[in-house]
Write a structure and sequence with these properties.
Layout lengths: L1 E6 L6 H10 L4 E3 H8 L5 H10 L12 H9 L2 H25 L5 E5 L14 E6 L2 H12 L3 H9 L4 H7 L2 E4 L4 H16 L5
Parallel strand pairs: 1-3, 1-4, 2-3, 4-5
Helix pairs in contact: 1-9, 2-5, 3-5, 6-7
């Protein structure tokens, strides 16, 4: 089985690639979903996060107020690292569980937005970056997510640069066009990979 990691900067199209791959019948692990589940009551990360950040982050129903937690770590690098130290091992374990569960499949994908930032590239046989021009990403953030231009630029600036991602990846999909164009690129790559001509 080939373990393939999918990454890319904000609004580049990672989730769109994952959606298309699922429609094609492939398994795609969602690391963001696993990270959210880590903080659910009963999960291992829930108690650890409360121990680290206090009960002030809890709502009345004892669930973690994710906005409060986010505001705590936004401007504090040490607290962000503490949270990552709780969440990342949980996500990694869930991802390995997914790989084991689908071990009979030829290729299994995992969407990991912070793949390179977390230093996870060695966990995969293949790393895939979905990328686009900064202006394309900014326009998508404004159109699809309701960001101001300043907010979109701040999000982009906070992530690893697209050039560094491209250089570190095995496969790169440039996604400045339509969803159909992206779908065609994926189909072509999968066909070439299946035929052993992908390099």
């Amino acid at each position: 089985m080939i373990k393939a990691g999918i990454t890319g900067t904000i609004a580049a199209g990672k989730s769109t690639v994952s959606l298309i791959l699922r429609e094609m019948g492939f398994t795609v692990f969602d690391s963001d979903l696993a990270a959210r589940q880590c903080l659910d009551p009963g999960e291992s990360g829930y108690i650890q996060v409360i121990e680290h950040f206090g009960r002030d982050i809890l709502r009345e129903d004892e669930t973690i107020d994710r906005k409060k937690l986010a505001s705590l770590i936004f401007a504090d690098e040490q607290k962000r690292e503490e949270l990552n130290g709780i969440v990342h091992p949980y996500v990694k374990q869930k991802m390995f569980d997914c790989f084991r569960e689908h071990g009979s499949e030829k290729i299994v994908f995992a969407e990991v937005p912070l793949l390179f930032e977390a230093g996870w590239q060695d966990l995969f046989d293949l790393t895939i970056t979905v990328t686009c021009e900064d202006e394309t990403a900014i326009a998508r953030c404004i159109r699809d997510r309701g960001y101001t231009r300043e907010e979109a630029e701040e999000r982009l600036a906070s992530q690893i640069g697209r050039k560094a991602q491209i250089e570190a990846s095995d496969i790169v999909f440039y996604n400045d066009g339509t969803v159909e164009e992206l779908r065609d690129k994926l189909r072509q790559w999968l066909k070439e990979a299946e035929n052993g001509t992908e390099g």
